[in-house]
Structure formats: structure tokens, C-alpha cells
Amino acid sequence: xxxxxxxxxxxxxxxxxxxxxxxxxxxxxxxxxxxxxxxxxxxxxxxxxxxxxxxxxxxxxxxxxxxxxxxxxxxxxxxxxxxxxxxxxxxxxxxxxxxxxxxxxxxxxxxxxxxxxxxxxxxxxxxxxxxxxxxxxxxxxxxxxxxxxxxxxxxxxxxxxxxxxxxxxxxxxxxxxxxxxxxxxxxxxxxxxxxxxxxxxxxxxxxxxxxxxxxxxxxxxxxxxxxxxxxxxxxxxxxxxxxxxxxxxxxxxxxxxxxxxxxxxxxxxxxxxxxxxxxxxxxxxxxxxxxxxxxxxxxxxxxxxxxxxxxxxxxxxxxxxxxxxxxxxxxx
Length: 332
Description:
Helices cover 78% and strands 0% of the residues. By secondary structure, the protein is mostly helical. The protein has 2 domains: 2-113, no CATH class; 122-328, MetI-like fold (Orthogonal Bundle).
């Protein structure tokens, strides 16, 4: 992470000379790729009609115009400009991907309907079924947030206990290692029995998937704290409560955040299955519903939403980590 930030700040000799010494070359390339996508979308007929082709062409055309303007003005944007230059190859790759995607699906039919969808087919899903998707997003975020945060809270408390107490670790760690490798979805029958509603069972499945990696890595972080810190604190009169709250937990936070990142991905992996347990709304429910009617374009559009949600939460977690662990800069 720090290497990427350093590369972004420096920009590289080649990036600076290509951007601030003249025209941003990748901006021009990206503008050409996005413009070609817009032209292909409206100029060539679809093998099977998908809808929203004109809207997609307008959006990609606007993107091409923006990149064309940025190609000659990005040097005036300071740090934002350096960020754009850093991601220039990705903007070009995205435009080329849209172009190839359009050709192989909508225009040539090499990847046929209903199994594959062109990009404007996904856009059409958002246009036509946007309100229902928005409701599903809110239901999914409610289920995920309840499961994830309850899971990491329980996992954090369990991990601190495991890392601090040798007796608790003796009995608890073997059980945790026994449960940990088992997929969270394997506990669905037990969840149905012990929880009164399918929603509560779904929360438990998500919480279990997020809590186990947090517990294991928190325990590892607490157990790996340098014992010299405890000895110095005890010499100054610190009690066990102070040692746990002021030394063990802060020193183990890098491990905790690694566990949270792992738990985040695991929780999203089981979220689809968890929402199939009798849910009436949610992105997982929507995927299952659309698969039953071969609405694969809707499925792909939902997967894009889930990927963006997960990426956004990961970014937020990075920001929180950097804020909380600023005192450890250079260590993590």
C-alpha cells in the first residue's frame, strides 16, 4: 500500500514527462478507445436487441470527450492530475474492454444471449429495474452490516481473550481451529434450528464468516506483543486492565485489520447464499430470482453492484485503518 502511494506521489519520470511536458498520451488513447466504443455501439446493429444502446453510446462519448480535454489539461490539476496519470493505462484498458465486449456479444453474437450480455445490456437492467435493485441494495446492506459488525465484534473479543489468557487459549484455540476451516454455509441446518427466523439465521452465517478470521488474527496479534512492554508497564504500576486496553489491543490492531479485510471478503462470499434463506429482497435473492428465469444480464448487473459495494467498503476500511494506525506509520 505504501509503495503504491509512493509511486502515485512520484508519478515516475516517464509519466511526468509524458503529462506535464506536453500531452497526456494515455488520455488520448483512452479517448480514442471510448469514442470507438460509442461509434460501434450505434453504428453496428445488434444481433439481438438489448435496449439502452443509445444511452450507452452517449455515456461513452461523454467519457471520450472528458479524456480528450484532460489529455491537454491534466497537468493543471495537481495531485488529482497525478492520480489520473497513474491510472491512465486502466482507463485505456477499460475502453478497449468495452469495445471488445460490444463486438463479441451484441454485434457479432460470439457470446450469445441469454448467457452473455453486452455492456449496454447491463445498463438497460439499471434503467429498467433500477428501483427494485435499489431496494435490494438497501436490504443487502442491512443484512451485511448486522452480520459483519456483530461478527467482528464477537471475533475481536474472542481473539483478545485467546491471546491474553493462556488457559482460555488452551481450550478455545483448538475449537476455533476446528470450526474455522468449515465453510460458514455448512452451518445452515444448525442455524435454521437455533434461530427463530431465516433473517436471524442469515445474520449468523454472515457473522460467522467474518468473525473467525478476526478472532484468529486478533489472538495472534495479542500473543505476539513484545513482553518487554508489559514488564515496563508493570514496573510503573499498571494493572491487567491497563495492559490489555493500552498495550495489547493497540499493538495488535494491524493484525485485527488484516482479519477484518479477510472477514469482509468472506462475508460477501456467503452473502448471496445467506440471502437465499427465505429472503424477499436483497441482491442475493435477486440473483437467485433472475437465474430461475434465465435473466443472466440481470445477474451480471447485480454482480457488478456487489463488486463495487465490496470495493467501496474495502477503501473505507483502508481509510479508517490509516487514521487509527497513523502512529504506526512505517511499521505496517
